[in-house]
Specification:
Layout: E1 35-40, H1 55-64, E2 69-71, E3 78-80, E4 83-88, E5 93-98, H2 112-123, H3 141-144, E6 159-163, E7 166-170, H4 192-196, H5 198-203, E8 211-217, E9 221-226, E10 240-245, H6 249-258, E11 263-264, H7 275-278, E12 283-295, H8 308-317, H9 321-327, E13 333-335, H10 363-372, E14 381-386, H11 392-407, E15 413-418, H12 421-429, E16 437-438, E17 441-442, H13 448-456, H14 470-481, H15 485-502, E18 506-517, E19 521-522, E20 538-539
Parallel strand pairs: 1-10, 14-15
Antiparallel strand pairs: 2-3, 4-5, 5-7, 6-7, 8-9, 9-10, 11-18, 12-16, 12-17, 12-18, 13-18, 19-20
Helix pairs in contact: 8-10, 10-11, 13-14, 13-15, 14-15
Length: 540
């Protein structure tokens, strides 16, 4: 996510999902007074809240919607947004009261039913929503989204509307931190327009956040504009954002320097050594809840047989994290020593050093473990990544060089680029990975649970490698049932120990959010999720 205008901008024949605003450069100020431009990538799926689980779509949802909770853009803490109150006496039954006076941008009021209908839709197997798993704790999920067969119900028995602005939630087990998850986009409310004419809504999504979608041409640009009727306190401080699609982050960065773009929030690794000088201080490097890992295709028997845990551990020890983060990333990454993020803090579950020797560069032991584990499956590791970000090829090549040097075999590891992020995600979803693959994780909410359960629990929503371990699952279940937060964190840490002992994925490094911006902008910040706080940016 970066020369002169690249050929993509000439592609006006790209499929228009919304009426196109026109085919033009869209440089700084081109969208009108108070409008700024920012780099972006097409989302993988239509922008339904329960069907968006990747960063680019998430950026838009954060501008279009507000849920019961919102994560503080400075601290990440879950704070009431549309929730007036969320009450419980047993960590299993919750009563939710929705604030009065909120509407969707089409004038519909936001009610208790706006949430209940949206959650039922998201959970229902027939709707095939990628985030359905997030509703799995609500009673009745097993009937609306069975692991096999067809649904025997289409609404969650644990959800009940009790008044225009009140509803109850019954979970199938205790989950003390359940309210903290409700800032995630999957839990956003939906207007009746979504259900009455779903096809029309998908073409032009209607939400209740500070922005409206003006137009979208896939492969070119999405234009969002300030909603003047937005009732929240976090109103847009600008008149809108033009999200310009880039398939190469280096082109976006060059456009920023040339004055053709106002904001880049994915600074390519090769530019990090120049950015402070290039932008005269208009650069942000902030800790974020992001970890980069290498995941494995456990659906491939060659990666899921006795001994391969040693191979995975050997590969981990063959990666010189310190050298790569220093030279490639200019210290905007920190070598990972566990599978979460330092932004959680020790009280939140971060365990510095949990990975131990397995995350330290040791070529001798790396060769020994790979040999003892039966050698590399197929004789070679192919690391798959999406090639439309300038940040990935360089570090994948560096990882492979490190592995090749450690194993004494210049063909032991090669990069396997896939053209676009959407293609990359589609191949992952179809279980077509030929070996390890890039698996960066950006937290959905600031809980240790979110770094573990969605990625490693059996059949979890983002368990792309299909890893499964009964001991891990049991510990996660126990942690979620624990009403005491500190005790729950300790159980999650034990579950993380199972991930470590099996090297379910190789932790690489923790990632800082990085962004550069033009002289037109002020009050630019990244939240703990490494996403620009678009509504706070001022223009001029």
């Amino acid at each position: 996510m970066r020369g002169a205008r690249h050929a993509l901008w000439a592609a006006c024949a790209a499929a228009a999902v919304l009426p196109a605003a026109g085919c033009g450069g869209g440089g700084s100020g081109a969208g009108g007074p108070g409008v700024f431009s920012a780099s972006w990538g097409d989302p993988q799926n239509p922008l339904e809240p329960a069907n968006t689980n990747e960063v680019q779509g998430g950026k838009v949802l954060d501008m279009l919607f507000r849920g019961l909770m919102r994560y503080n853009p400075r601290t990440g803490a879950a704070e009431n947004m549309l929730a007036q109150r969320i009450e419980t006496s047993d960590s299993q039954n919750f009563t939710v009261t929705v604030k009065d006076g909120w509407t969707f941008s089409n004038g519909e009021p936001v009610t208790a039913r706006s949430f209940v209908d949206a959650w039922n839709y998201g959970a229902d197997l027939k709707n095939n929503q990628k985030n359905a798993y997030f509703f799995g704790y609500i009673q009745g999920y097993d009937r609306v989204h069975p692991e096999t067969g067809t649904p025997t119900a289409h609404t969650l028995s644990g959800l009940k509307v009790t008044g225009p602005r009140t509803f109850t939630v019954r979970l199938n087990q205790k989950f003390s931190t359940f309210p903290d998850t409700l800032g995630y986009a999957a839990f956003a409310p939906l207007p009746r327009a979504f259900f009455d004419d779903h096809a029309a809504w998908v073409k032009r999504p209607v939400g209740n956040g500070p922005y409206l979608i003006k137009s979208y041409t896939r492969g070119f640009m999405m234009s969002l504009r300030k909603w003047n009727g937005y009732p929240g306190q976090d109103k847009a401080q600008n008149n809108g954002v033009d999200l310009q699609v880039y398939t190469d982050s280096n082109t976006a960065y060059t456009d920023l320097l040339a004055g053709n773009l106002d904001l880049v929030d994915d600074v390519p690794a090769p530019q990090l050594k120049f950015i402070r000088t290039d932008l005269d201080g208009r650069y942000i490097n902030a800790p974020a809840g992001i970890i980069q890992t290498l995941a494995f295709p456990y659906y491939d028997p060659s990666w899921n047989k006795p001994g391969t845990a040693k191979v995975r551990t050997g590969l981990s020890m063959a990666i010189n994290r310190d050298q790569i983060t220093d030279t490639i990333f200019q210290k905007t990454r920190t070598p990972a020593t566990d599978w979460t993020s330092p932004v959680l803090g020790t009280e939140g579950g971060f365990q510095d050093g949990l990975c131990g020797d397995a995350c330290r560069y040791d070529p001798v032991r790396a060769r020994k473990l790979v040999r003892e584990g039966g050698g590399l499956p197929g004789g070679q590791v192919r690391i798959t990544y999406n090639a439309d970000s300038g940040s990935h090829k360089e570090w994948v090549d560096a990882v492979c060089n490190s592995v090749n040097n450690a194993l004494g075999n210049d063909k032991a590891c090669v990069g396997n680029p896939v053209g676009t992020f959407a293609d990359f995600r589609n191949q992952i979803g179809r279980h077509r990975m030929p070996g390890p693959f890039r698996a960066g994780w950006q937290m959905d909410y600031p809980l240790i649970q979110n770094f573990l359960q969605p990625l490693y629990y059996t059949n979890a929503s983002s368990n792309d490698g299909a890893w499964s371990n009964k001991d891990f699952d049991k510990l996660v279940d126990r942690a979620n049932a624990e009403s005491d937060r500190a005790a729950a964190v300790k159980l999650f840490q034990q579950a993380e120990g199972v991930v470590r002992d099996n090297m379910a994925a190789i932790p690489l490094w923790y990632q800082n959010g990085s962004a550069g911006y033009s002289p037109r902008l002020s009050h630019v910040a990244l939240n703990p999720f490494s996403v620009p706080v678009y509504n706070e940016i001022k223009v001029g």
